[in-house]
Amino acid sequence: MTEVATGSTDLKGRDAGCDLAAQILEQLGSERPDAVIVFASSDNDYEGLLTEMQQRCGAKAMVGCSSAGEFTGDSAGTNRTSVLALRAPEMRFTASMARDLSQDRPAAARQLVSRFTGLDSSEFRYRTALLLVDALAGHTEDLVDQMTIATGGMYQFVGGGAGDNAQFKQTHVLFGTSAFSNAAVALEILSNKPIGIGARHGWSPSGDPLRVTESAESCVVSLNVSPAVEAFDDHAAATEQHFDHDDPLPFFLHNIVGVQTDAGHKLRVPLGIAADGGVLFAAEIPVGVIAHVMSTGATTAAEAAGAATRDAVAQVEQSGHTPKAALFFDCVATRLRLGDDFGKELDTVAKELKTAQFAGFNSYGQIVRAEGQASGFHNCTAVVCVFPD
Questions:
Q1: C-alpha to C-alpha distance for 6 and 282, rounded to whole angstroms
Q2: What is the C-alpha separation between 93 and 10, in angstroms, rounded?
Q3: 20 CB neighbour count, 10 Å cutoff
Q4: What's the rounded Cα separation, in Å, for the pair 77 and 81?
Q5: Taking each helix axis from N to C terminus, what angle separates 298-317 and 342-353, rounded to the nearest 10 degrees?
Q6: Residues 6 or more apart from 103 whose CB is under 8 A from it?
Q7: 8-state DSSP, 32
Q8: Predicted confidence band of residue 374 (pLDDT cuts 50, 70, 90)
Q9: Is 80 exceeded by the pLDDT of residue 369?
């Protein structure tokens, strides 16, 4: 039987670790948790926070990342720390960490997978890994592909990119009692009950098709053989929106880009304008793909989160089990765009989960590789991972 605890605090460093450990122990009792997942605001003393938590609650495995908004079913905000702790005798958790993401993704994937125990064992039917990355290191889509190769396609993946409260300067992943940049952490989760994963977004195309004709890593240089910014100028004029090149983010948050795939549109958030008229994005967009400017609303975003939660819950319930706990991830861009209305998403997730507790964070991209889902690295996509009883 799975036991769960969630916690949240606005304290920092060792004070935060003490507070969160007390919340975990109050809910789980004196026996140490099998896994603790931590989402900590970037203005934190990570090592003080993690060391205090480890000393007091003795987690067998502890991973996490810096964040850009933190929440549980009971609280939400920024400059906080949220945690999910699990004690699950019928599951097996193994934590791993890899560095140098920007230099060598295949090597990073092999390093992460080297500690996975499910590759050589048939003891557990379901293999899942929570993957948290420093997305500012780039190439997260490639890392997800390399993880799939390194595991022979036997694992489903869920997770997100670490944040720094929308500063986009430096992010960290957390492993044990230490923090690392240009790195990734994984939490292998082995179970004989299904782990449900749902991913949805509420965006739809609102502009003409655009072919990416030149790109350089996370900068799209041209669309339809013209400077990329001109496509946004045209869209702003056609939809009667204000687009200030000196302050483009307010426009970009409401007019992101969807890359056309066989499974639907994979979202990418524009962040700025380059000197040559290129547009800087939160993730790479390859040359040759077809893209659209996308639109959505607060109600649609909440509906998408609800649908993602229902998808994940159904995967657990269809096997005769009850949801016990969940992780919920959505993009920092979603929080910035919605403002106070982001609470509608959290309320919708809580309603769909019923009695199951949840924790999560606003991330710099969301990771999904699961059957029936649009797989890979996403922006502005609600992602839910549900643990069974």
A1: 30
A2: 28
A3: 28
A4: 9
A5: 20
A6: none
A7: P
A8: low
A9: yes
Q: Give yes or no: residues 380 and 305 share one domain.
A: yes
**Alpha-carbon distance values, 356 to 62, 148, 212 (Å):** 21, 29, 43
Cα distances from 279 to residues 215, 233, 242, 256, in angstroms, run: 9, 12, 17, 11
How crowded is the C-beta side of 7, counted as CA atoms within 13 Å? Answer: 27
**Tokens at 362, concatenated:** 């606003």
Angle at CA 310, nearest 5°, toward 202 and 336?
35
d(CA 372, CA 315): 11
The dihedral through the CA atoms of 227, 232, 233, 235 has a sign that is positive
Same domain as 83, residue 214: no
How far apart, in whole angstroms, are the C-alpha atoms of residue 257 and residue 57? 43
With a cut of 90, say whether residue 123 has pLDDT above it.
yes
Matching residue, tokens 């004196």: 30
Among candidates 143, 389, 168, which has minimal Cα distance to 269?
Answer: 168
Domain that holds residue 282: 204-295
Compute CA 220 distance to the chain's CA centroid, rounded to the nearest angstrom.
23
Number of domains within the chain: 2
Question: Model confidence over 158-188: pLDDT tens digits?
Answer: 999 999 998 999 999 999 999 999 999 999 9
Strands of the sheet containing 3-9, edge to edge, are 3-9, 81-87, 35-41, 61-67, 173-175, 178-180
13 and 141 fall within a common domain: yes
Residues 221 and 238 in one domain: yes
Give residue 159's pLDDT.
Answer: 98
Q: 215-267: per-residue pLDDT in tens?
A: 998 899 999 999 999 999 999 999 999 999 999 999 999 999 999 988 889 99
